[in-house]
Amino acid sequence: MASLLGTSSTAILACRRLSSSSPIFPPSISVQNHGKKCYGGIGFQTKRGRSPWHLAVTNVATDVNSVEQAQKLASKESQRPVYPFAAIVGQDEMKLCLLLNVIDPKIGGVMIMGDRGTGKSTTVRSLVDLLPEIEVVAGDPYNSDPKDPESMGVEVRERVIKGEQVPVVSTKINMVDLPLGATEDRVCGTIDIEKALTEGVKAFEPGLLAKANRGILYVDEVNLLDDHLVDVLLDSAASGWNTVEREGISISHPARFILIGSGNPEEGELRPQLLDRFGMHAQVGTVRDAELRVKIVEERSRFDKNPKEFRDSYIAEQEKLQKQISSARSNLFSVQIERDLKLKISKVCAELNVDGLRGDIVSNRAAKALAALKGRDNVTAEDIATVIPNCLRHRLRKDPLESIDSGLLIIEKFYEVFS
Prior knowledge:
By secondary structure, the chain is of the alpha/beta class. The chain has 18 helices and 15 strands.
């Protein structure tokens, strides 16, 4: 810390302790003494009514960048250790669905349903380390895309239309947890009470949907979510925008996010309207193989004993996976799918009586994302066979007399059409 801040850091910290109202200076600002008293090599004025500091700013860019890097590193180290994605044993279907959504966010998210204690939440949260960086407008609460007007907040768009240069920074894709007990104001946004009381103006305080824009919104136990919050999510997922009407203020901001939900089917079913909004559906079962179960227990024990050492042992695999995702994202637009394969996908959907066209669209997108993940430029029938059960399983009409699993039903229809 001392080497980053330079020789004047001790003095600056000393002055901070002496006066709570003292400004905090970046390391690029040198302070000249024009006062009567001096502490730690820096003087400050003791008489009232006069400015206590004389500032000279030099070499801002280099020092600020080094401080930002140090702050990012410090914040990363201070966070709770996350279980590495590469260390998760089994559950390949769930992991694949998550990776495909990171590669192509337009797939529309994933619903993960399965037994309790099967690592659903752990797997989703472990995705944080693999998320790539995106460009956002600096200081914007909505993570506005500087190149896409549809993903810009109203204020940023007005500045761009006027021809202003907006500052751009790179940041990791955000993952926002939506707690079951969250209020609608916390999710959608509300009036900034502090500004209303201190400045007498009506100002908007963004909520979780604003923070999740261009990121991931994760809802654990989504089937237990209150109905009014489900309605909010349905509205935002359908339009890509969140509109808030509060106390005479009408605010709209972009809210395009990858919706990830997890839950236990024994605790209740999900509303069909919300279920249809998830692009993919992954079923998670308890691992039955004794060797795998022992390996999972041992790995978890290692992580609990020393999280840092455990994470360090998976750095190489994590970096390899990050590069694979980054390469797939950049090559996604060059992946082609033949018209004949598209026709067969739509024929499968039609013969299974899938309502709407979301099943067709998501199956095409997921197959292309899988081909990109494998480093290919063309989609094969094998790619489609891998992803189509996850894309259609939750869209089939439920038949109480049907004993066969919906995933097996889709695979049977797939081989019937594609053969």
